[in-house]
Here is the input.
Amino acid sequence: MSASLPQIPWNADHAAALVARCVALEGPLLPALHVIQATFGCVPDEAVPIIAQVLNLSRADVHGVLTFYHDFRRVPAGRRILKFCAAEACQARGSADAIAQVERALGLKVGETRSDGAVTLEAVYCLGLCASGPAALLDGDPFARLKGARLDHLLTQVLP
Amino acid sequence: MSVRVFVPADAAALAVGADQVCDILSAEASQSGLPIEIVRTGSRGMFELETLVEVETPAGRVGYGPIYPDEARDLAHSGLFEAKSHPKCVGPVETLPFLRRQMRLTFARCGVIDPQSLDAYRNAGGLAGLEKALSLTPEQIVEEITRSGLRGRGGAGFPAGIKWDTVRRAQADRKYVVCNADEGDSGTFADRMLLEGDPFLLIEGMVIAGLAVGAAKGFIYIRSEYPHAIRAFSRAVATARNAGLLGPTAGGGLPAFDIELRVGAGAYVCGEETAMLESLEGKRGQVRAKPPLPAHAGLFGRPTLINNVLTLAAAPLILANGAEAYAAHGHGRSRGTMPIQLAGDIRNGGLFEAPFGLDLNTLVYDIGGGTLSGRPVRAVQVGGPLGAYFPPSLFDTHFDYEAFAARDGLIGHGGIVVFNDTVDLAAQARFAMEFCAIESCGKCTPCRLGSVRGIETIDRIIAGERSSLAVLEDLCETMRLGSLCALGGLTPYPVMSAVTHFPQDFEPRGEALAPPK
Ligand SMILES: Cc1cc2nc3c(=O)[nH]c(=O)nc-3n(C[C@H](O)[C@H](O)[C@H](O)COP(=O)(O)O)c2cc1C
Ligand code: SF4
Ligand code: FES
Here is the structure.
């Protein structure tokens, strides 16, 4: 029940068509970046001139927006994306230990992708599950009370 | 007649296996040939009890929780469908003290009805506010909002009526309503619960706002960290469109009003209203200098009403029951109810809607039940990452905008995060600076560079450099006075409150402090 779309290899024509569907929107750039990332897994450098041309913006504008927002990635992530909450309410419920355990189990640090491409681990700041932390999103699906057996179980889902 | 069973589809329930619980319950029921109907609801807001399964009885709904997927089969076999007693039975849900002690106005339906059913919404009193609004002039609608005393629930507490009136009076070829659903503050989830648990209330509030200010287009900006709320709300918008409640040619005497949903991209600062407008326009989420106010020149330069989810969701009620009924509740200049969010290390965590004015002692110990861990409470942070840390000696502070401001704090969006005695307030102060550094939009130096200096300074203090405390204080003063928006301007709150109320944590310890995760 993953929330992320199946990702397909980069295709410039397909990208241009997706961006063209956003043209009629008021302020189409963010929706365009989102749809490119949802489709191809990231917004590669090749996408920038296409988006700029279709939306009639400068490349610098597109680049500036792309790099401002934490969500947009310019290279693909791992096959699974685990976003672990690092904000205060989860800290108060022991998220630092949970994150350390995740890092050990997955063999990477927050912000990294495993060299085998299996998983990317990222920090997020609050998922609105602040009375049920530690909390995380795995490919968009929420998980909470991530301690002990529940955390172990999540890790086996990430790395079977 | 089939037995009606209620299982929340709120993210907090899904995060502990509510979908699996549902699947198991319906499989067990069909195996034993028992006709049941499972209604997916929002959350009642008692997160320790999720997944809270309820079954309808002639005497009201009986609850069982927390139910994990591996307990669901046993529950079904031990008489759930006959509402039999069970170790996980919490009794009639509506009589639980945590719910009984609330005054649920905004959250009256949340956790009770199927949030995706417009009929259920209407049967539970929905759309009465809009009906009333249609019988009034825009000026009269705004007057009701003004007389209710409603203040913005997004953080700053600005009087809603004044803002609505400014946009109403503005002349332009078109105007916009923008709903701020960026809910970035740690310890808050009321917007999310409402988007998932009673989306038609917000839609109704936005339509009323459009009527009042003369806007035909509304945007809602939901943070990307809420994928489930995004799905739930867009489904509800589609339903409302099909029903003629929204759309370029809305039905039933309604003027045209449509809502477009936009998804954020992981920038906390885009919760600031002008950064949000930039983001909606497709730009970097950088804060704009004011003036002009968004009410005069907002989205695409047009007059724009921008309000928090809870502000807009309060409008239908105010219209339906009258401004006086709303203003009758509250404390001082904080009128009405506030959905307070109890979070962190707290036994009864969740959403508690009550009139303003309860004190922190009541909220943390009496209602919240103290810590979940059983350890003593050492601090609370109220109002998100820009809110102050308060020690228990300040727990006589009443939940009210002015009362918190008088103690160098803020209530913000109403989140209370409880920390036990293992918390290190120097680490929390450092985190506040780090968060500011990560999320700064980069427009002003005190915020962009001051936060980075702040991290280094706190590290030096902890390493034993006492003189750096004065540097930190100066730095905070510079950030407070020299920042364009509250991100840089209020980060000094958590930092200086930690220094002031927990000075022992800033004593030298001669070792580098690892950043909290
Ligand atoms: C850094 C920063 C983040 C903010 N985040 C939010 C937010 O997530 N949600 C919100 O409603 N208001 C947020 N605000 C407040 C908004 O700027 C604005 O005051 C609010 O949307 C106005 O609506 P209201 O009057 O209904 O509260 C934030 C402000 C700042 C400075
Ligand atoms: S205070 Fe920080 S976030 Fe706010 S405008 Fe200045 S740099 Fe941007
Ligand atoms: S702080 Fe972790 S979910 Fe809110």
About this structure: Strands of chain A lie at 80-85, 119-124, 136-138, 141-143.
